Amino acid sequence: MSDRSDAGDRAADDPASMAPETLADRLRSGDPMTVLDVRDRDEFERWHLEGEGIEAVQIPHMKFIQAEATGGVTDLVADLTEPILAVCGHGEASGHAVDLLRDAGIDARNLAGGMDAWADHYTARELEVDAPATVLQYDRPSSGCLAYVIYSGGEAAVIDPLRAFADRYAEDAAELKYAIDTHVHADHVSGVRTLADRTDATAVVPAGATERGLAFDAATVEGAAERSSASPASQAQQDGDELRVGEATLTVLATPGHTTESVSIRLAGGDSDTLFTGDTLFLEGVGRPDLERGDEGAADAARQLYESLQDRVLEYPDETTIAPGHYSDAAEPRADGTYTSRLEHLRNRLAALSMDDAEFVDHATEDLPPRPSNYERIVATNLGLETVDEETAFELELGPNNCAVAD
Prior knowledge:
Blueprint: H1 2-5, H2 7-11, E1 17-18, H3 20-29, E2 33-37, H4 41-46, E3 54-58, H5 61-70, H6 73-76, E4 84-87, H7 92-103, E5 108-111, H8 114-119, E6 123-126, E7 134-140, E8 145-152, E9 155-159, H9 166-172, E10 176-180, H10 192-198, E11 202-206, H11 207-211, H12 218-227, E12 236-237, E13 242-245, E14 248-254, E15 263-267, E16 274-278, E17 285-287, H13 294-311, E18 321-324, E19 341-342, H14 343-349, H15 357-365, H16 375-382, H17 390-396, E20 404-406
Parallel strand pairs: 1-5, 2-3, 2-4, 4-5, 9-10, 10-11, 11-12, 16-18
Antiparallel strand pairs: 6-7, 7-8, 8-9, 13-14, 14-15, 15-16, 17-20, 18-19
Helix pairs in contact: 5-7, 9-10, 13-15
């Protein structure tokens, strides 16, 4: 993935290119922009750039090749509003289109490295927390996936790591003690196994994940136990279990509903706690209830989710910081740039949190968005039932996460 990750360096001094990090800033600011996607229609429909201020248009590269021969390049984009950002898979076909557009006097730039480089863009921001720890939120803007690293007393834990960025966590957290999943993910390939294999981290998953068929390789678990002098390898955690990371305490809170084994992780603070809610509660909605047991089991799962929210999450004080596992285009970052929120704000803003149980079930099971791309293979991989190489894993999880029920 090195060719994708250094796209920003290649674009830095090129006025005809836009680096992935620059695109991320543009999307967060909502600046208007036309995105010209020159991939084939099926690639565009599977996954394309979206966001506040974005108008996405698909015109296949072949039409630019034809227009170059006939001199009709400007006619192709006559109805498009400038500025234009052209994209393709790797940045080559879109680069050709941009050369033609700029020669015609059109304000156009190319996404350096293409959609692959966009998917590989990952950034970290520090949360403002009241705890004996430093917390970083890792943001993958191409999919809205969030992960967290908690540092305290020379030790670290990562929550909901992505396999695609396992080396990044390992480099950033020299003494990685735990790699934790809040549930069996359906939108991305988990990095828990990889981190347990490559570092001294102990793999931690909810106890219910084993009942769904999760099968850690015995050598991975035993190896983690041998490498970690601080604690034995821990494959599964129950409600109320505690994990010590330096001076910080992480407590497992069972919050089933999105999946049967879903948990949230509480970081104890002085005057306020931080609650890492995985796919239970988001800034703009709640977790969808149909990914594990399908449409037939969605209503029962929604009732379980309602109980988790009302009896567990909403019992926390208003000052509690909610740190979710995903965000969507509708989410607005806090002043510190992170996608987090005080619980009080979510109580007041999300209608789903004030519904009765019947209203909530209807809300959570009607008009659901499409399921995440390749979710069945991703779940099988995260359950240990299928093995995929790194490149296949990267391809499987391209696209939006679609794990939420929007409010």
